[in-house]
Design brief:
Radius of gyration: 19 Å
Largest sheet: 6 strands, antiparallel
Shape: elongated
Order of helices and strands: EHEEEEEHEEEEEEEH
Helix content: 10-25%
Strand order of the largest sheet: 3-4-5-2-1-6
Number of helices: 3
Structural class: mainly beta
Strand content: 25-35%
Distance between the termini: 17 Å
Number of strands: 13
């Protein structure tokens, strides 16, 4: 998995490509307007400086699924720099799930344990949104996906509760402001960003 980030206001005209944000950068190689970031001999990220001279990027923040023209342009830049190119994104790591049930958290009165389903499998998580109801569709980030803040979500256990996925709000999904868990209209089990 990889993820693009762009924020002109925050970082200037730089497109960031995260491939493995959890690996420390041990070496940086600059070739023109491209900086390749390595962990030993493994490429973990690339910074594209003055990207506005090559392509126009609308919006700000995480780019979960780059459109074909953007990916083609980035791959051209990578190939010219002697770096490996990127395959199209086939799974954004964000999927639409249905709330099956909620129950009180035994160790946190401000949270609920949520059981979710994609129509084939069940998942468990914890949420502070006490308004969640069975039957609602929500969006969750899955294990190994790069999140909106550049971190990687990993399934884990917190206070004896399995956290298989993490529920997202509208701000994290870049579709509005945070006001509790985002309720989705997309089909159950679909990839939120790819629509499949």
């Amino acid at each position: 998995m990889y993820r693009f980030f762009y924020s002109y206001k925050t970082a200037g005209d730089i497109l960031f490509l995260l491939i493995d944000p959890e690996s420390p950068v041990t070496k940086c190689e600059r070739k023109g307007n491209i900086a390749a970031l390595w962990n030993e001999d493994r490429l973990v990220g690339v910074n594209f400086f003055e990207i506005g001279k090559t392509m126009k990027i609308r919006g700000s923040g995480m780019i979960a699924v780059p459109e074909k023209p953007m990916l083609d342009c980035v791959n051209h830049l990578l190939a010219n720099a002697g770096l490996p190119t990127l395959a199209p994104v086939t799974d954004s790591g964000y999927h639409v799930l249905r709330v099956e049930s909620t129950e009180e958290h035994p160790l946190d009165e401000k949270a609920v344990i949520v059981t979710l389903s994609d129509g084939n499998a069940n998942y468990s998580t914890v949420s502070r949104d006490l308004t969640l109801k069975a039957g609602e569709n929500v969006v969750a980030i899955f294990d190994g996906a790069i999140a909106y803040d550049g971190s990687v979500f990993h399934r884990h256990i917190a206070k004896n509760i399995p956290i298989d996925v993490e529920l997202c709000n509208a701000e994290e999904l870049r579709v509005g402001e945070a006001n509790g868990v985002f309720r989705a209209e997309e089909p159950l089990g679909s990839d939120f960003y790819l629509g499949e």
